[in-house]
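Posting this for the archive.
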Amino acid sequence: MSFAIVTDSPANLPLDLICRNGLMVIPLSYSLSGTERTCSAPDAFDSAAFFHALKQKAEVSTSMIPPQRFVEYMEPLLQSGLDILFVSMSSGVSSSCSCAAIAAQQLQETYPDRSIRIVDSLCSSLGEGLLVLRAFELRARGMSLNETADTLLALRNRICQIFTVDDLMYLTRGGRLSGARAVLGTMLSIKPILKGNEQGKIVMAGKVRGRSQSIRELARRYEEQVAYPGDQIVGIAHGNCPEDAAALADLLRKNKPPKEILTVSFDPVNGAHAGPGSLALFFEGGEDARLH
């Protein structure tokens, strides 16, 4: 192993994949009812209780990782003689990438013979997670640190992130979507369709009437945009609505079944902004898929 692969907790990868791959996950912080907490994986906390607390208007907030936390996690890897590839949550919605860059600069001064490459995934949740899994595939094929990082940078705009939410308040409250759009989700059962754009920001992509139609719309966009479905893992993340996630997975398998569907609950950092009832789909599309 010529380099270590590191990511942050919003990559949303479950514990079995973290352990199986030897992935280092740096946890972002969140606060629930005044208590600061961290969580490294979506199956390492009580998802149902967390989203129930959100519905009950519990005070939930997220905060940036201080650069020192990156130093604490990364320095032992450098000390052991490993270089580092860090895949970060989108800079369009988080400061994780910039804080990691500050830490990397400090560490490079102490370890000038080691290399650290930071890849801004321009994604969150399993969009970021899929890039992390690709990194392991590329390393296993014998790619170097720089080759792997450059391949991920070329791939990131092929990662489609399409999702719907029950209430846009959670995104607008966290500053991840224009507040002027917040009325959409409360009017006449109109459900927004959102996506990650080429800057890694969350933007409106459409709207439909009703929950079942929003699920079908996610599947329709998958069929329209997916590339080589039989050769890729597709991700589904949800805000404590496993039945809807299963219904979406069934639709995906009908016409263009993927090699595998990875379904997880949103981790608390992503979940605090997506909210209860959120449902997201992540997959690799064609070149510059996010522009469409």
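The chain has ten helices and 13 strands. Residues 21 and 133 are 9 Å apart (CA to CA).
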